[in-house]
Amino acid sequence: MHRCLIAALLPACLMAAGYTPAQVILDRQVISPFAIAGTLNDSIRINVTLGQVEYLTIADNDHYLTQGFHQPQGSLDPFVEFTVSQDSCSGIFTIQVTALQNCDETSNINYWWNGSPGADTFETLDTSVDLFVQSEACVAATTIVPAAEPVSVTPCALGFYTIITPNGDGVNDAWYIENLYGPWLDNKVAIFNRWGAEVWKGNNYDNTEVVWRGNAADGTALPDGTYYFTLECEVNNQSGYIELQR
């Protein structure tokens, strides 16, 4: 048998034949001493191992050395893909399952969140959530730490009070806008009467220093009735009505 048929001496044989050594990494390589499963022609023989063709490397009479790459056995484990979003007002995380991967059958999927059955979407304030998913063919389990995932933050929607009662009792004496923070503070607010005339305006309305208390721009008290507002902001523009009752 040719001395190069010994796999351990193959590098030395190549160097003796005049090859220059190089740093080559072959992942999951398979070396087999025989290749007799099939014949392409008189000089090349191949063997098939786990779906991978082994290529003839060295031959000496009836002995052959082949090499190829081993195919992974079995299948990859099923795993869950999901997204995480958060409401910036309440801080609640919403986890939504988008796919059950590496599963041939994904119909009739059941979900358990922290041990309780549920749907594909789960809302939580927990720092950690255990998720178990089961289809007719697969199961997958994972622990999700919402704050550690890529999170899509949903900004709070503004809430506009529709009544103002500036009578000095400390309740609704000024017009209040809920969730007015961050980018919403860079705004322009204008108040109009029923005939469309502007009666008050303010920049950077903040519910405290810049706030409408039922007065006109010159400070005089406005009569009871329905007024209309506009709020202009780079985030969004808003409009609506306010009932003034003293």
Question: Can I get a quick summary?
Answer:
The protein is mostly beta strands and 246 residues long. Helices cover 3% and strands 43% of the residues.
* Cα gyration radius (Å): 37 Å
The number of E-state strands comes to 20
Strand content: 35-45%
Instruction: Classify the helix fraction into a percent range.
Output: under 10%
Write the CATH architecture name of the largest domain.
Sandwich
- The run of helices and strands is HEEEEEEEEEEEEEEEEEEEE
User: What is the straight-line distance between the termini?
Assistant: 109 Å
How would you characterize this protein structure?
By secondary structure, the chain is mainly beta. Strand 4 and strand 5 (63-69) form a beta hairpin. The longest helix has 7 residues, at 10-16. It has one helix at 10-16, and strands at 29-32, 38-39, 45-49, 52-60, 63-69, 79-87, 93-101, 110-113, 116-118, 121-124, 129-134, 139-144, 151-154, 159-160, 163-164, 177-178, 187-192, 198-203, 225-233, 238-244. It folds into 3 domains: 3-69, no CATH class; 79-154, Immunoglobulin-like, CATH 2.60.40; 159-244, Sandwich (Immunoglobulin-like). The protein is elongated. The strands form 5 sheets. Strands 1-5-4-3-2 form a 5-stranded antiparallel beta sheet, with no helix packed on it. A 5-stranded mixed beta sheet has the order 15-20-19-17-18, with no helix packed on it. The protein has a 4-stranded mixed beta sheet with strand order 10-7-6-13, with no helix packed on it. It has 1 helix and 20 strands.
